[in-house]
Amino acid sequence: MKKLFIYYSLTGSGDVVADYFKDKGYEIRKVIPKHRLPKNFFLSMMVGGFKAAINKKDKLVDFDKDIANYDKIVIGSPIWFDRISTPINTVLNRLDIDDKFNFVFYSGGGQANNASKKIKDLYNIDSIILRSPKDNKKELDKLKNI
């Protein structure tokens, strides 16, 4: 069975989740936006949060949307103001999401109600929410059934 984890990470939580999936035999595909957010953490959260709130999509660097040969795909996104990150909005726009997908959100606050609702409404798929997995590795236990 071929498995793929597609994700974006700004602060490193997504990279921790990617390491977990890599150890489980997943191929890893990190999403890189063409235009970076400001280096200042507060400013990056404000800019990213605003863009996420208006459902903006980022231009991506060399995003490979070929997923035909994978049996299971997990998409991971940080949560910005309770919404999916803008790079992952672009991914969702480019892929045909079906029942071989799972969604993982990582959030400093542990809340992702709007993001989870969006995924449920659009694709009828439940998502897993991890609270600060970079700092709390025990959160990764929530992924054991994927």
Number of domains: 1
CATH architecture annotation name: 3-Layer(aba) Sandwich
Largest sheet, in brief, is: 6 strands, mixed
Tally the helices: what do you get? 4
* CATH homologous superfamily placement: Flavodoxin domain
CATH topology: Rossmann fold
Structural class: alpha/beta
Mean pLDDT score: 87
Uncertain residue segments: none
- How far apart are the first and last residues' alpha carbons, in Å? 13 Å
Kindly provide the radius of gyration, computed on alpha-carbon positions and rounded to a whole number of angstroms.
14 Å
Helical content stands at 25-40%
The outline comes out as globular
What is the CATH top level name?
Alpha Beta
- Please trace the helix and strand order, writing H or E for each element: EHEHEEHEHE
Strand share of the residues? 15-25%
Q: How many E strands?
A: 6
Description:
The model has no long low-confidence stretch (mean pLDDT 87). The chain has helices spanning 13-23, 41-53, 86-94, 113-123; strands spanning 3-7, 27-30, 72-80, 83-84, 101-107, 127-131. The chain is globular, with a radius of gyration of 14 Å. 30% of the residues lie in helices and 22% in strands. The chain is built from four helices and six strands; from the N terminus they run βαβαββαβαβ. It is an alpha/beta fold and 146 residues long. Strands 1, 2, 3, 4, 5 and 6 form a six-stranded mixed sheet that branches.
